[in-house]
User: What shape does this take?
Amino acid sequence: MDYSIETAPLEELQCDCIIVGVYQDKQLSPSAASLDNSTQGLINSIVNRGDLSGKNGETVLINAIPGNKIERILLVGLGENKPLSGKNYKKALLAAVNSLKKPQIKSVVCCLAECDVEGRDWQWKSRHVIEVFSDALYQFTHTKSDKETESKIEKISVSATESNRALAHAGMLQGKAVAEGMELTKHLADLPGNICTPAFLAEQAIELGQKYPSLAIKVVEEPEMAALGMGALLSVSRGSRQPAKLIALEYQGGEKNAKPIVLIGKGLTFDAGGISLKQAPGMDEMKYDMCGGASVLGTLLAVAQLQLPLNIIGLIPSSENLPDGDANKPGDIVTSMSGKTIEILNTDAEGRLLLCDTLTYAERYNPEVVIDLATLTGACGIALGRVVSGLLGNDDALCNELTIAGEIANDNLWRLPLWEEYQEQLKSNFADMANVGGKDGGTITAACFLARFAEKFRWAHLDIAATAWRTGPTKGATGRPVSLLIQYLISRAHTQNISG
Ligand code: BES
Ligand code: MN
Ligand code: ZN
Assistant: This one.
């Protein structure tokens, strides 16, 4: 995909379609008004005829403009004539791109960034044109014989005025980095478990490191894990023929001694539940149990592309969770790298077994903060639905920063309590703790388990079990929470620049 900023007058543009907005009260956006002028009132006549009411998300494609160089104009309803909410801005963009998935349309110029959006500047508006368009144009064809995609769009331009060019350009670069990061995340997530194995993920990280020399890649293999005492992680992978990998991506964009931000992503390339086998319906979706790991890869791709002035470490513990003669059995007790013992009452609560050893491993980086991303509990979808990811952590400031980043990125988080009272549910008669806490508050008790391994640093946990992919007829990865993570990192780099 080719991205650019366009400041030339609309009448002179060479593209297959120009996208402009119209409000509900028939008010035309500035670009729509200017095109109306150069087309003898064509747009006003369409609006006055009632063919476009201006409702947010409504579209009309004008596909022939006699006597004019312009090929096509897409009119997009914006809703009420007032600053748009961020959500409505996104909705209008999405409607626009979805109506342009036609073979004739290869290049588009989007003029919607000129609309006022509540509390957002040109940089944000430009970034979101790129993010929303690229996201909507993603199509997984890798394992289909017919690789034809619905859309042929290969060039997206954001129209800006000369005075806004710099901000629009900065937004475009951010949007491009997020879009490419999300694309990698979605692609890896959508791949099936027989292709995307732990070794495959490690290979992907190594390739990313070859493409971006600022990323140093290290893969910890099982013998080294054993030497480190990662008994919890290894107990899960023992039930699989695929060896586990702990993938580390090290990015040093900040000062040599600056403490790094560590991102940990759960990388279960397939989770059948182990001996506590899951039921058959929907089990295919457990190929998505590596979405946290894929998000770490996507985020680090974007970080490397944006050359953020921060030190960032990505850690992806990756394994399969399968039933096997050598798999964990309910009641088994393992010793984690921290020395704490764990009674595995349910082998399907495997994510926390990988994450706990990775949290302990993260200590060696002397982290500024640690954020883990995990498709950890089905209970998170029961509590919050598929709209928002769960957030839990031991540091209010970090949780607030992440929540704000989520709002800016339109990739939201909702915090759940991580109170001492819940820890009781993890009591075990035979080990330091059990790996499950019963049916109540499953997302919270899972985080309580992790918290016991995150006492040495500021830490937040994102439960993305219900947001990382869509289920049903549009089944597919969403690329969440890459956008929010990049926003968090960009914000951090920014405050650091101001205060430092
Ligand atoms: N990967 C699953 C969580 C999950 C389930 C995500 C369904 C999305 C949809 C995780 O490993 C798991 O199986 N968790 C168990 C925990 C339980 C045994 C305490 C769950 O949610 O059922
Ligand atoms: Mn599981
Ligand atoms: Zn799992």
User: Anything to note?
Assistant: The first helix runs from residue 30 to 38.
